[in-house]
Amino acid sequence: NSRRDCQDHQQDDQQHRNLPLAPHRELRLPHLYPFPARFKTVRTMGVEEELLLVSSADGRPAAIADDVISADELLIEMGVADADTQIEHEFKQEQAEVASTPCHTLGELRGELVAQRAKVAQAALLHHGLAVAIATSPVKVRAHQTDDERYLRMSSTFGLLAREQLTCGQHVHI
Asked: Residue 37's pLDDT is what?
């Protein structure tokens, strides 16, 4: 009896695999039309991304953020880099931050992120570094504090936790 059940299930599975796909139909919800004005606004999205700066020689985190930002400014002056986006400091000197503009599509956002990562990579290479999109360093490192009033306050408030952390994030804004 169980053999027959198994054969029946196999036949059912085969029949379902051969069914044609249902034609695409637009879903209409008449009780929602017309949309209230507040729903007619197109949402945008953007990303802030922190990248880890590492040595191109050994892959260890490198405190080259000041140099990378200076190189970016120089490349902008030379007309080689995009002036619309700038590389920014982050909590540690082993990090650099970029931020997209508000985008309407995922393709547009992806294009900006790829271009910005390439921009940081280009500036880091001038100082024998690489830019890596990674959450934290896979090797032990003593990170260097960025000399900025806000970051110094954070270090004072959070003590050892702030001194030992080297965490990169990606923040999505809708």
From this structure: 58
